[in-house]
Amino acid sequence: MAGKSRGEQRIGLLNGFAAYGMWGLFPLFFPLLKPAGATEVLAHRMVWSLAVVAAVLLVLRRWKWAGELLRQPRRLALIAAAAAVIATNWGVYIWAVNNDRVVEASLGYFINPLVTIALGVLLLKERLRPVQWAAVGIGAVAVVVLAVGYGRPPWISLILAFSFGTYGLIKKKVNLGGLESLAAETAIQFLPALGFLLWLGARGDSTFTSEGPGHAALLATTGIVTALPLICFGAAAIRVPLSTIGLLQYLAPVFQFLCGVLYFHEAMPAERWAGFALVWLALALLTWDALHTAHRAARNLRAAATAEAAAEAMAEARAAAATAPAAAAGVPAAGGAGGAGGAGDGAPSNAGELKVPPVDTRP
Questions:
Q1: Which of 142, 164, 300, 323 is deepest in the core (most CB within 10 A)?
Q2: Taking the chain (363 residues) in consecutive chunks of 10 residues, what is each chunk's mean pLDDT?
Q3: Are 56 and 177 in contact (CB under 8 A)?
Q4: 132 with 117: CB under 8 angstroms?
Q5: Long-range contacts: 20-23, Cβ < 8 Å, 24+?
Q6: 3-class state of residue 51 by DSSP
Q7: Which of 285, 267, 265 is nearest to 277 (CA)?
């Protein structure tokens, strides 16, 4: 059983690395789609993503949720909002990558955890621990430092961080699986995106038909590129602890940052290094706090389980002590079956045994 569990965790980790690795290497993919502009790439991504996800759901025969969703107008409205927010996120990211702003885009996903915490405080009235407050404060200082370094606010980073944070907040309220949610969102995006592509083709500005079959095939693969990491993420999420997923999520912006600095050779003056260093310090504090809190919760859970097991063992011991003398005298125990039965009516032959339930000491 333990071997199987370790095997499942290895599969989960591999899928997690694959998901965040693919997301982190997106900056290498989108430039391949030139000369298509960001808006055309975005429209193709919406159309082909629906085709891919619908095919996967068809194979898995997971369509029951769709009928239930159509009967819930409030959830449909939330899905529509999620579709609009993630479309903004995708569009800005594609534009940033194709305009040599990969480092700034990676910053958006570095500060996303800080933005998510801020949204939780502002919108959900969540209470923060002191370390979390410190991390958010350092993150705010980092944005100011980066604004000085860029000569303007890092608006690409802020749009990406706030749009993705808002998207996560909406998804939490919708409570749909990853594939199902993407299918619903792209279904809402499909008609506007298809209409835009047809209009682009009618004007003669579409690159899908004018740049050859290789380019058309690359545009079509945007559906696979969108869906595949999500499928891997889903496989990881059900096999590894949430704390591990929280650590793996930093892989994507790390890869994006490295792509921007090492592959695209984007400038990193001292002010930007200082800003990124502050962001990384804030994330280190958040990670330490999350791991410390999870460890403490697990320790408390083990202590509670041990105390409960000890209490159960003591209760069984008392019951056995009360039953054994009655059995020795041939009298039914209190509450036993039959009021005036013979010597065998009260306690079983092994009434004096103490059965202590096993204690689960796993974290």
A1: 142
A2: 68 91 95 95 96 91 87 92 95 95 94 86 82 89 89 92 90 83 93 96 92 95 92 84 80 94 94 92 87 77 75 72 55 40 40 40 42
A3: no
A4: yes
A5: 20/229, 20/233, 20/248, 20/249, 20/251, 20/252, 20/255, 21/251, 21/252, 21/255, 22/225, 22/228, 22/229, 22/232, 23/229, 23/252, 23/255
A6: helix
A7: 285
